[in-house]
Amino acid sequence: MKISYLGPIGTNCFEACSIYNKDRGNELIPSKTITEAIELLLNNKVDNAIVPIENSIKGTILETLDNIIENEELFIKEEIIIDINHCLLGFNLNNEKKIYSHSQALGQCKKYIKENLNDYEIVEVESTAKAAEIVNKCRSGLCIANKTCAKLYNLEVLKENIQDKSNNKTRFFVLAKDKDYKKTNVKASIVFSTKNSPGALYKILGLLNTFEINMSKIESRPSEKELGDYLFWIETDISEINERVKVLFEILRDKCSYFRIIGIY
């Protein structure tokens, strides 16, 4: 099997892939962007795509969410959560005053940058590994990446754990085009839109309460049909896919103007 991911080798997404791929022996295909990784899956060039969906500091990765919502062929197969430990990498602190990294990593280290590197120019690149590659080639500037990148690109670890919060975690989705639902101790993700009437969203959420289903996340995204029209992504915690849960889904399907299960994992 082949798996695409946000590359190159050394990114946090690569580390998530390595965890998922342990003892599986799948071929890992790096992509320049999240969208590119997903497009490889949509075009049947790979069997799965592993992409980031949420960070505990910066929140939802909208590029991933929008791709899932827009492509009805995609399903969430599994989730992987890893600890994120950002490091300041380079050769010394007295060279070109530029910091290279991915926008998410820069946002997660905003406080450290402000307090210690406020006079440095911030340069956003496609990934943390790409940032390490640039610093390695230029032999100047600094980057924010992980220890794996330090080893891969022969950079010095100038400072460890520079993220603003110690409990920094990122969640990744394993995406597929086939439905491979788990049966017990699972999460269920759905996307839906409501009718444009008073209390419509409240009534839908009330059904979750009626069926004693915990909602762990909700996010709204523009439907792109007209201003003020939204799609809602909800994650719920369910112990098993039983008849009660199936009834809830059927009621939601009937009550919503659009309803889709995007993963039970």
Explained architecture:
About 30% of the residues lie in helices and about 35% in strands. The protein folds into 3 domains: about 1-85 and about 170-175, Periplasmic binding protein-like II (D-Maltodextrin-Binding Protein, domain 2); about 85-160, Periplasmic binding protein-like II (D-Maltodextrin-Binding Protein, domain 2), CATH 3.40.190.10; about 185-265, ACT domain (Alpha-Beta Plaits, 2-Layer Sandwich), CATH 3.30.70.260. The chain is elongated. The two termini are about 20 Å apart. The strands form 3 sheets. Strands 1, 2, 3, 4, 5 and 11 form a 6-stranded mixed beta sheet that branches. With about 260 residues, it is an alpha/beta fold. Strand 13 (about 215-220) and strand 14 (about 230-240) form a beta hairpin. The longest helix has 13 residues, at about 245-255.
Provide a brief overview of the structure.
This protein has 265 residues and is an alpha/beta fold. It is built from nine helices and 15 strands.
| Through-space gap between termini | 20 Å
Task: Please report which band the strand proportion falls in: under 5%, 5-15%, 15-25%, 25-35%, 35-45% or over 45%.
Answer: 35-45%
pLDDT < 50 stretches:
none
Structural class: alpha/beta
Task: Identify the overall geometry.
Answer: elongated
